[in-house]
Amino acid sequence: MKTIIENIYNAFAEGNISVVLAAMDENIFWNEAEGNSLADGNPY
């Protein structure tokens, strides 16, 4: 399992988003917390 996660992180770091997305379930659903400090798109 560790190797799978490491491969996903490495692919993300290299900008290989197709590999990252291929590792995710096709029915993935993303929930953002209300009031998230990053909600305005500011990464800091």
TrEMBL record:
Top-rank taxon, per record: Bacteria
Protein known as: SnoaL-like domain-containing protein
Organism: Kriegella aquimaris
